[in-house]
Protein 1
Amino acid sequence: MNYRSIAPIMGNLWSPIAAVTSRWQERSNVQIAVAISAASIVPDMPRVLLQIYKTNHSHGMIYNSGGFALNFLRRDQLDLIKTFGFVSGRDKDKLKDVPFRLGVAGNPLLQDCWGYLDCRVVNAMDGGDMTCFLADVVDGDILHEAQAEGEPLWWREARRRLPAGWMEEWDGKIAAEIEISKTRMNQIDLTPDLTHLA
Ligand SMILES: Cc1cc2nc3c(=O)[nH]c(=O)nc-3n(C[C@H](O)[C@H](O)[C@H](O)COP(=O)(O)O)c2cc1C
C-alpha cells in the first residue's frame, strides 16, 4: 500500500481541536486531542470516543478518575495548541493561569473556548500505545460569544497557520512518539479492566 496516497483520507478523520481536561486527586491537567468522534445515534443519550496515548500524563488521570471534558478551541486560540499540546503536565501546571470551573462530572471546564462536553467514561479499549475511552456526555454547551464565530478550530487548518518554528518543534515531538508507538501498538491487552470505576 502507498501510505502517502491515503494520507489525505486519514488526515480528514481528525476532529476539531479539543483541550482535554481531567482531574484526579485534587489536581487538574489539560492536553490537546484530535482523535475524537461521536459515538451515539440517540440525541438525548450522547456519547463520544476519545483516544489518549499512554505516555501522556492525562492518560492515568482519565483512567483513574473515569472522566474528562472536551473543550473545543475557537479559531483565534491557536496559541493554546502549543501551551497544552507541546509540554506535559508532569513538567508544568498548564492550567495555572487558565480560568476554569469544575463541571457536574468533576472535570475542569475552560471558561474561554468554543464549547465543551463534560464526559464520564463507560468503557475503554486497549490499543497498545493508546487507550480508546467510550464516555457518556453528561453536560455541554456552546459558549455564548462563540456562537457568532461559527466553526471551531480544525487541525488541518491550524497546521497551515502555525509558525514554522512551532511545526519544527511538533515534528520532533511526534517523531519520538511514533517510535514509541511502533514498539507498543501490538502489545494489546484484550482483558477489559475498568472494574475500579464500577
Ligand atoms: C494538534 C495536536 C493533536 C493531538 N492529538 C492527540 C490525541 O488525539 N490524543 C492524544 O493522546 N494526544 C494528542 N496530542 C498530544 C498531546 O496533546 C501531548 O502529548 C501533550 O503534551 C500531553 O500532555 P500531558 O502529558 O499533560 O497529558 C496532540 C497534540 C497536538 C499538538
Note: Strands lie at 18-24, 27-33, 36-38, 47-53, 67-72, 100-102, 108-110, 115-126, 130-142.
Protein 2
Amino acid sequence: MSFARRAVPGLVALAVGVGLVACDARSGQPSDRRALALGLDPSDRGEPVTASAGKPSGFLMGQLHMHSGRSGDSETPPEVAARWYADRGFDFVFFTDHNVVTDTPDLPGMLTLPGMELTQNLRTCTPPRGAPCLLHVTALFVDPGLGAVSFAQASSLDRGALYGRAVDLAHGWGALSMLNHPNFADAADLEVVLALAERGTFLLEVENRAVDSRNEGGAGRPSTEQLWDDALTRGARVFAVATDDAHHYDDAAAVRARGEIAYVGHRGWVMVRATRSPASIRRALEAGDFYATTGLVLDRVEWRGRRLGVRALGEQVTFEVVGTGGAVLHRAAGPQLEWDVPEEVRGYVRVRARDAAGRRALCQPVFLD
Ligand SMILES: [Zn+2]
Ligand SMILES: [Zn+2]
C-alpha cells in the first residue's frame, strides 16, 4: 500500500488530479518515516502467520490485494510473486498493482487473476484530515488488456466524489470494487463507506494486514471492524475482507536490512466457497459466501432458518455473535458454535472467532429483516 517508494518509469499515470503527493521515494527510508509519522512502532515486523489448519474441503484460499514489480513500490517480478503465493497453498491471487493491470499465466493449482489498485494520492481533499489523501480502491476481475490508467484533473476534491469516480470506473469495466484500508491516513469514514455501498461497492478491507493500516483505530477514529458494524447498522450490505497488501516477498530481509519496513504476505486472506474458476469465485464474493481470516481456519459456516453453525480448526477458540451497532449478542467457547438467533433480534448478525494465538476469522453478516 505504500504509495511510491521509488519513481516509476512509464507510470506517469500515477500523477492523479490536483496536488498529487510527490513520490516520497528518492529520500532514503520513506516507509519508516511514514510509519513513524503515523505513530507506529517500526519494530513491528509484520511477519507472515501460520494458518491454524490446512484448507477445508469446499473452500478456496484467495488473496485479493498484493503488488508486484509493476507497482512502483515493489521490486518482485509478477511471476515470482505468484510463485510465492502458490508455494503457500493459495488457490487464487489477484494482482492489484497501482493503476496498472497485471496478469500472468496460471500456475498449477493456482489461478492468477487481473485486478488493479485504483490509486489517487493527493496532497489535500475535503474534509482535510492533516494527512495526504491516499484514496485507494481495488478493482477485481479487470480486463488484462487494459494496461495503465490515469485520472483526469479532479473537478471536486470531496473525498466521496474522488472515491466515487474510482469505483464508477471499476464498475464501468464490469469489475468488482473494494474499499481499501479505510484507516490508512484516515482516508475513509462511515460516510464514504455508505456512499460507495450505494454505488455498488460491497467489499471492505476490515483486515488490511499491512503494518501501517491502523485497523484498530484510535485518536477519535473507530476501528475498521467498528466502521463495518456502523455501516451494517445503517443497512449497507458490505462484506469484510482480509488481505495482505504485500509488496515484498523473498526480498523482505533485504528491505529490512536497509532499515525499511517490509510489507509481506500470508497475513490476511479470504476463504471462498467456490470452485477454482473466475466465474465461481466471483459469484461467491458477490453472494458473501466467504469469510475473512488472519490465520484461523473455519471448515463449517452455515445458516439454516435462524440457526447459526460455525466450526473452527484452532486451539481455544472463542466465538462471538455480533449484531446491530457491534453489540455482542452471544458468546461461546469453541470449537463449534450452534446458536438459534432469538426472534426479537433484528437487523443483522455476524460471527467472529478468535483462537489462543490471536488469529481471527470474520464471517459475513446475515440480514434478518
Ligand atoms: Zn496496495
Ligand atoms: Zn493502498
Note: The helical segments are 30-37, 78-86, 159-172, 190-199, 224-233, 252-257, 278-287.
Protein 3
Amino acid sequence: MRYENEKAYRLISPRILILVTTVDILDGIDAMPTTFVAPVSFKPPLVMVSIPPKSNTYDNILDKKEFVINVLPSLYVTKVLKCGKHFPKGFNKLQQAGLNWYSSEKVKVPRVKEAKIWLECRFVGGLQIDHLRSTDHVPMLGEVITAEVSDDVVTEGRVDMKKLSPAMHITSESFAVGFEIVKKKVA
Ligand SMILES: Cc1cc2nc3c(=O)[nH]c(=O)nc-3n(C[C@H](O)[C@H](O)[C@H](O)COP(=O)(O)O)c2cc1C
C-alpha cells in the first residue's frame, strides 16, 4: 500500500522511547518523551535529538546548552507518557509524572532516577536546513560528555536488553516490549 509521506517516519519503527531532560530559565525541570534520537558520530561522540522549535525543550537547550538523554525500563512507560504534555516554564514535569531526579555528573540538567541509561550532553549546534526554512523539528546535536549505564542491566560488559526492557514505540499507543534477541555474524 502507499503511505502518506508525512507519516513515513512511522515506517521506521519501533524506535526507542527516551526522555530528554532540560532545565528552563525559571529552573523548572522539563522532560520530553520522544523517539527522534540517533547517534551521529563516534569522534567526537555526537548524538542528535530532533526537537520542535515551539517546545520548551528547544528553548531550554538553546538557553542552557545542555540536555540529558534518559532511557527508562518499560515498567515506567505510563509515567514517561505523563511527561508528553506542554507545561509552563518553572514547572517540574518529572514530579507531576511521579518520577524522581538527581544531579548529573557534569551538567546542571538532572538525570531521571528511574532511568538505567544516561547520556549527559553539551549542545553543539542545531541543523538549519536552508531550503526548508520552517521545518517542524530541528535536529539538535549534543556532544556526550558523560555516559553511564546502571550495572544491574549489564551482562558481560554489554547492555542486556532483557534486563533493560526499553519501550520501543511503534505508533500512537502501541509499544513493543520484550522482543526476541538473535545473534548474527556480520560478513
Ligand atoms: C511516545 C511519545 C513520543 C513523542 N514523540 C515526539 C516527537 O517525536 N516529536 C515531538 O515534537 N513531540 C513528541 N512527543 C510529544 C512531546 O513529548 C511533547 O510535545 C513535549 O513533552 C512538549 O514538551 P515541552 O514543550 O515541555 O518541551 C511525543 C510524546 C510521546 C508520549
Note: DSSP finds four helices and 14 strands in the chain.
